[in-house]
Amino acid sequence: MNYVAIYRTLSAPPTDAMTVARGDDYEVHLHPGPLAVSYSTGSADPRSPANTITLGQERREFPRGSYLIVATRKDTTSGSAWNAAKDRIAQLVAVLDLEFPGLAHEKVYEGLMLTPATPMHVTWEEGFQFSPRRSYAPSDVATSLQACADRVQALSTQDSARFTLAARWFQRATDATNSIDRILFYYTVLEIYPTLGDVDVPNIVARFLSDRVLAGLSAKDVKARLNLGRICGFRAEIVHGGKASVTSDERATVSDHVERLQAIARTCLRVLAGLPPGSDLQRFVTTSG
Q1: Count of domains forming the chain
Q2: Would you say residue 140 lies in a domain?
Q3: Domain annotation covers residue 138
Q4: Nearest to residue 203, comparing CAs of 180, 224, 182?
Q5: Are residues 125 and 84 in contact, defined by beta-carbon separation less than 8 angstroms?
Q6: How far apart are CA 42 and CA 128, in angstroms?
Q7: What CA–CA distance (Å, rounded) separates 62 from 48?
Q8: Are 85 and 177 in contact (CB under 8 A)?
């Protein structure tokens, strides 16, 4: 597969496209534009009663300018190859910025790039992951979203600032496709609220949820059933142990960590916003796990 990142740069554009670095599995180019990249799309079909994917193809075009193209090639399309491709991109962009600060000024595209050899390619970073379908009526979305937005707008200055900061990290987690990144981002949400900067995230979150959401459970039970201790330990392994990827043997466990953190972060943000806490945690706390 071919995986690329394209940046607008702060340098003068070259007269012609030029290769500035090349390795066994990567190339780095400066390009004056115009240029285009085609990629496959796969989206769930909302009309289908089952989990199905509608395949398509899109094309992004970029006008004349000054561009940096970082491209990497992998022989397979497995999750490990996808992770390796993204890691290589991250390494190269970091090296570029260390040597030429600000050169990679604005990322305009990152993802798979179709070639004549691979005219259709749809995959996800850690494999295909399906979840039970949920259907939302547009009228319900419109009504509820307006009410929720109004509640957030009515928050105090302090709570609004904290919600805004946490929301930015929650959005990063929602948009991310890498489980390691999602764990770090969702965990940061909990550090912002309800932990409020304290280092004892598992116990403070457990007490908060016991007091505000899960009144029938003690903080000790909440911590155990949500696996907060294990999740905190895994997060420490990422940050302090430099763990950058998930092995195939870890995938199910890490996916469970992500689902729990997402549900916890969503619940805490709903409380902060003055909304009903919802039922996201129920499937985790009804049985020990």
Answers
A1: 2
A2: no
A3: no
A4: 224
A5: no
A6: 11
A7: 35
A8: no
What pLDDT band is residue 130 in, cutting at 50, 70 and 90? very low
Q: For residue range 62-82, what is the model confidence (pLDDT) as tens digits?
A: 999 999 999 998 765 565 677
Q: Of 112, 128, 160, which closes a domain?
A: 112
Distances (CA, A) of 130 to 104, 145, 202, 259: 35, 26, 29, 13
In degrees, to the nearest 5, what angle opens at C-alpha 84 toward C-alphas 44 and 114? 50
Q: What is the pLDDT of residues 236-268, one digit of tens each?
A: 999 999 999 888 899 899 999 999 999 999 999
Q: Tell me, yes or no, whether 137 lies in a domain.
A: no
Only one residue has tokens 């570029």, namely 96
Distances (CA, A) of 206 to 37, 202, 210, 231: 47, 6, 6, 13
Which residues of the chain form beta strands (DSSP E)? 2-9, 18-22, 26-31, 35-44, 53-62, 67-73, 104-112
- Tell which wins on pLDDT, 156 or 80: 156
CB 53 within 8 A of CB 133: no
Residue 202: inside a domain, yes or no?
yes
Query: How distant is the alpha carbon of residue 226 from its chain centre?
Result: 21
Question: What is the C-alpha to C-alpha distance for residues 5 and 121, in angstroms, rounded to an integer?
Answer: 17
Burial of 243 (0-12, 13-18, 19+ CB in 10 A): middle
Question: Is residue 94 located within the same domain as residue 179?
Answer: no
Residue-range definition of the domain harbouring residue 157? 152-285
